[in-house]
Amino acid sequence: MRTDLCDRLGIEHPMVAFTPSEHVAAAVSRAGGLGVLGCVRFNDAAELDAVLDWMDRNTGDRPYGVDVVMPSTVPTEGSDVDLAAMVPQQHRDFVRRTLDRLGVPELPAGQETGDAVLGWLHSVARSHVDVALRHPVALIANALGSPPPDVIGRAHERGVQVAALAGKAEHARRHVEQGVDLVVAQGHEAGGHTGEIATMVLVPEIVDAVGDRAPVLAAGGIGSGRQIAAALALGASGAWMGSYWLATREYAQTTGGSAMQRALVAAGSDDTVRTRIYTGKPARLLKTRWTEAWSEPDAPEPLPMPLQNILVSEAHQRISAAEDPEVVSMPVGQVVGRMNAVRGVEELMGELLREADDTLARLGRLR
């Protein structure tokens, strides 16, 4: 199963895996796909540089990529805006009351919370790009639209492809006009930041809009070889998968905790909710007691990005440390209903490829 995407990225199979885990990304690349490491969790360039050094040593000389979060409207370094001061006290009080009611303990005394919002800032995303371009990355993807022209230009100077996510055909057209090489058509079913249009409708719309100028990757709800074959039938050059890798042993190597994976394995495809509570932009999350609290009558409206990030930053760290599967705060798509056991990346890749090949062969026999 090869498409033009394989030749463009130097991979064996037209499968791209977005993940915040370097262990998952490296395993996918070794298996012939393209592992794309999410950089938003890295607050400083040195930490990311060390992880990319590890990727260089552990991908078996196979290509890999990185994903940055580069919002264009967030104040950068040098701004006089005190973002924390813009968070209303009533929002802080609601978060405190909710954590107490859900039984989420305080972080241990002396444990540094860090500033988890840093990775969402434009200036930090630029430092992620600086680090990535010092490594042999094959792709830089931006989760929040087209990167700035200078970032695209720098990537192209080093022979690095640039991708951007799109939830509408008009977004895809704008990406290509600005120099983006690959468009990820991410449907409503997807985890994390996602739009209103379902994958089945969105992919052919974007292929019709830009497919003659840039390969299109289908994203949202893909968790089987049949769905990869369906993406190709819709005109996509490959599949972009994120949520599916959360329930892997390699992901657990990065996170250490098991509560999130227990929650994912127990969830069905109707156990997600699209909400602004995670970052301030609409994002699909696992439905838990934490997300339900934000839909209650006394809950305030979520703040815009990055103020919502600042508001819930420590809450997310406390929730993660609590290891309670009923309270976790985790972006995941509707494909969670297919994630019924914790398995290895190599096993999943093999299963996906076999089913995709079988499906394509079956379709080829139809008359």
From TrEMBL:
Origin superkingdom? Bacteria
Does the keyword field hold Flavoprotein? yes
Q: Which Pfam families match?
A: NMO
Q: Which UniProt keywords apply?
A: Flavoprotein, FMN, Monooxygenase, Oxidoreductase
User: Which species expresses this protein natively?
Assistant: Saccharopolyspora gregorii
Protein name, entry field:
Nitronate monooxygenase family protein
Q: Which GO terms describe its molecular function?
A: monooxygenase activity
Xref: InterPro entries? Aldolase_TIM, NMO
